[in-house]
Amino acid sequence: MLREIGRGFSAVYPDVELDIPPSIGSGGGIAAVGSGAERMGRVARPLSESEVEYGLEYQPIARIPSAIFTHPSAGVDALTSEELVGLYSGEITNWSELGGADLRVRLVRREDTDSTLQVLRGTMPGWQDLEFSPRSKTALTTQDAIETARDVEGAIAFGPYSGLLEEGLTIQKIDGFHPTDDGYPSAVTLALIYKNGTLEPDMEAFLNYSLSGQARELIRNYGGVPVSN
Prior knowledge:
- The chain is α/β, with parallel strands linked by helices.
- The chain folds into 2 domains: 2-63 and 187-226, D-Maltodextrin-Binding Protein, domain 2; 65-174, D-Maltodextrin-Binding Protein, domain 2.
- The chain has 8 helices and 10 strands.
- The protein has helices spanning 2-12, 25-35, 49-52, 81-89, 115-123, 142-151, 201-210, 213-221, and strands at 40-43, 56-70, 78-79, 106-110, 137-139, 155-160, 170-171, 173-174, 187-195, 225-226.
- The strands form 2 sheets. Strands 1, 2, 4, 5, 6, 7, 9 and 10 form an 8-stranded mixed sheet that branches. Strands 3-8 form a two-stranded parallel ribbon.
- Helix 5 (115-123) links the parallel strand 4 (106-110) and strand 5.
- Helix 1 packs antiparallel against helix 8.
- 36% of the residues are buried.
């Protein structure tokens, strides 16, 4: 989604060189900007009090649903919240138990500090005290989780929703709701962070564009909800 916003920005400001690197996680972005190694970063969770003490500014731009996605080989496109807990706890080990393919479930999770996991624990029924199966693989980035789910038969993973997830993956409905439906419970807020007085004019232009009507339309096209400012 942020790269799509970047493409829109580049169309308006073709002379500005823009680079949006792969995610290093919210904690990594906060550390990089807080230490001065970078001047702008992206996060998918609010700043803690100690992080605010870095002098960081927090500008939310979009609410992004937390999606559950699987390799198409699983043969399932809808789960109940109870089934989802059964999968990640290791109680359900084969997709055939849910009416899918006779295929072993391959669990992909994120580290405990991951923003999407924190939102799932706070909003998805049964996730607050969920203990992950020891057979689950921990993906260290969103890209890793997505690539594993695309490459490994029977894989299930989670991460921020975007339209790109619809390519080569099956987005699971949970309790009958797609991540873009109003009744879907789990979402994270995507925000840009920076320190006052450190942004060059080109960076300020990108920040302003991210809040523009054009960017809001791009966010909607990707299944996100623009944040009111």
